[in-house]
## 1
Amino acid sequence: MLTLYSHYFSAADLMLENYLKLQAKQKKKGTLTQRDFVDQRIFFCTWLGFLGVTCEGFRQLGMRLFLMNKRPTAFLELVPKLDEIGKVMTQHDDALREFRNSVFHLRKNLGAVHRFFASEVDRLAWARDLHRLIDRFFSKYRVICEVHYLMHDRVDESQTGKRRRIVSVL
């Protein structure tokens, strides 16, 4: 679960943050440099791509059963949040999956990209709502984890008050 958060959703969150910064810059200045324009497109596409991977992870983990059967009872308060995510996610998850594939695999055409945006449905607003719901879910999940670790003398697993040594994988 935390791998899904740290490797995929955090990447989506970072890409959305960078995209929004460049969007604000464009709004303020009225234009972007060529480099900023390219970066904005990269941030936008990878945000949606990593959001799609996050959704895939939710499905593959069987998140609802995971919380109900493999986590202590304190985690059950997350089930309604998870149900809300599932309800929103299923509205356009196939279109997002196709878009994600077009981002992370060499594409032969832009069909999936066009289909994602060529609908009468505002999938961009949908993606922002989905992102917000997942962000809130993970935020609450991490808080419950911290409380659980501290209450069950698992301080070594806690993030509270610790400075962890980061080991680069590059």
## 2
Amino acid sequence: MDGLDKVIETGGLIGEPKAVPGGLIRYAVIPEGSSVHELERLLPAPVRARAAVTALSVDTFCAYVTKFKTEATAIFADQKSFSLVGIIDYHMPSAAAFRDHRVSYSAPRSLEWETWRGSNAKKMTQADFAQFIEDNVVDIRAPAGADVLEVARSLQAKKAVEFSSGIRLADGAQQFTYNETVDGSSRNGTLKVPEEFTLGIPVFFGGQLYEVRARLRYRIEGGKLSMWYELYRWQHIEQDAFAAVRGEVGNGTGVTVWEATP
């Protein structure tokens, strides 16, 4: 055996994988300064699946999980972020797993929900409030859209008057008293608006419609009327809507959905 053959033989002995006594993990001693190269890419196929797929709809999420699921597959739902993660190769009670094969989905809020939630509890001028209601009257289920539109236009028409007070009527409506000057003459008048209205909007894109109560609020300062609305228990509506998404995923995949983050 010449010198080169001896070097190769010695190197092979040094780098030969060894087993820890009583253990499952094999190791190899690599001389300092050497590098280790991953050779999986030279195999006909990877040794395990790796993927991080982002589904853009509940249907796609369910279809993906259904296609690749195994006995180990687990789905996790995060109530705070309204997101789901499906881990195809999750742990089994008797064996650990790499958890490298995943699919995720974040439920996007609908444009209607973003619009009404975005302006919730934000004080507006009389004119701005009227314009907001007119732009989004299609989402209002009660009172009738035509009646609400008439109120919005009345608010726009009376934006130059001076308001003095507001009272709650027996039917639950709010009545505002104002003073208006026309051709040098002053006259008093009243303007009646509903105390609350009911929306019919989805929380998530493509989801079912929810009835959402919006309570009217106002303030009169220096004769000027400010108005806004407050959505009643909107957080509970979001939770209920996401619970419906979780149920749809559980039924669509046949996999238990855990309320947790992986």
## 3
Amino acid sequence: MSDVVNIGGTPAPAAPGEPARRPAWLRVKVQDSQSYKEVGQLINGLRLNTVCTEARCPNIWECWGQHRTATFMILGDVCTRSCRYCSVTKGRPPGPPDAEEPGHVAEAVVHLKLKHAVITSVDRDDLPDQGSGHFAATIAAIRAAKADCRIELLTPDFRGDLEPIRRVYDARPDVFGHNTETVPRLYRRMRPRGSYTRALELIAQLDRWRRAEGVSMVTKSGLMVGLGEDIPEVLAVMDDLRAHGCDVLTLGQYLNPTRRHLAVQRFYTPEEFELMRVEGLRRGFLHVVSGPLVRSSYHAHEHVPAGR
């Protein structure tokens, strides 16, 4: 099957009360290929969750169908937080993490022959270690099963607790990412249980540890635009991230996953994304990926600078 669809929910208004057409650059081809089906069957067979499906990622057809890769979401599929832009189920998780999940993730990595695996998770504020032990176990399982696979993490903020952050760091991922997601002015509305300061401090702590210990781990963060911020605010976040030791940055268009979620406030043009990419590089990021359909893990293997 091949078709062209618009991604996201309701369109952003062009003027008060006047809907706008979704721009052409936010259209993707749906390609229900054999590879796409095989990846889906593997994920389902191992009882794994992926951010590809849970977050309704627009790039799933390409990643599963063309590249045979997926971003694994561990620690279940229920999040203890309630960010307004996210489609993952919110509430109290039904039980402890699946003890077999790290091994299943490693099995999928081997089966897909991945050279670069991306692991993310829901927030698990209900757990004593906030899920950090499960992250460490997943890294260990992948290392044991496929030692040549580079491992990238996109983690929660662990409520700023240094002990769980250190536990994950000590497992030595190759890339340790935590997204700021939006600008500080919008945090209370978009991420009511998050903290912009805490997000920056997590990146800074990783930078301090790696410098003190001579570790070559890459730090990474990402933002969505179209939530109501403006470009000067985005540039200010770039400055903050660089000041706190962030190496790699991703920038993508927010697209409301359903009509129940916050509507897009503005569509950024490809030219504006290019402007922000150039500004990021000018500020010293080692790599900046900026575009309408960019997501944290989209082509993640290309985000790590050569030699890192």
## 4
Amino acid sequence: MKLIVGLGNPGLRYAGTRHNAGRHLVEFIAKCEGLKWTRKKSLKALISQTRWKSEEMMLARPEVFMNLSGEAVSLLAAHTGVDLARDILIIMDDVALPFGRLRLRGKGSDGGHNGLKSIHQSLGTTQYPRLRIGIAPESSDKIKDLTAYVLEAFDPAQKKVWPSVLQKSFEACRLWAAGTLEAAMNTVNSNES
């Protein structure tokens, strides 16, 4: 089994915000695959299951706030018994990457991302794959208040291209699930557009 967790904040207030990029992606995948979500209180998440070729897949949307993401991720990992270094993929926004740019890694620091910080603390490791989706504006001087920026909705220009970013991110998830992390990283990280 492979587990894909899309980070974000629950509730309508945060539904269309940049900080929910990870959550947007798993919702997009579920919609494309015609999947239904099931609330699992014991896992602090909504889950959806499918199969990609011969691989059983679980998509998850934590029902905790971003800075508590580790609570849900540790419950999901324990429930599924996935190998953290190989079979879990955490999806999140990254304000350090240009809008729409993807970065797939197998380990690393939290980079100031509160969701990752919580996951690192809960899992006790930084050795798990993560897909970062860039949300930075064209010019970094446009960010006056980082917290406000990530909790705002996409601007009109970003909204226009967001569907193609989601499609590209979905393809990155399929690459990760179908082969080795290294092969997926080589493809995803070399696509600069």
